[in-house]
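Our platform keeps sequence and structure together, in a single record for each protein. Such a record has a labelled line for the sequence and another for the backbone structure tokens. This encoding replaces a full spatial description with a residue-level series of whole-number codes. Below, we set out a record of this kind in full and without editing:
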Amino acid sequence: MSIDNREFWNDRYTKLDNKPVVDSFLTENCHLLPTSGRALDVACGLGGNAIFLAQSQLQVDAWDFSPHAIIRLQEESRHQGVEVCAQVRDVVAQS
């Protein structure tokens, strides 16, 4: 993604004042989750799904293009007392 896209998402996540939200599809189907293992949340945003998965006893990696989103996810996961390996990643960029 371009620098302009990164600035757009950083600006969006900086201005958002709300807490991370878990997708209803995930909560409605949580009975299908394994009791252990790893999960990957790509384009995690503020990390509502990642935190939910970590609270479900999974080891979670969370990736997003926005450094601001990752910082907020790291803060919230610490506040919730769960471990999420959150990283700034551009999964679209070609190496």
Q: What stands out?
A: The chain has a mean pLDDT of 90. Helices lie at 3-15, 24-28, 48-55, 67-80. The CA atoms of residues 55 and 81 lie 9 Å apart. The first strand starts at residue 38 and ends at 42.
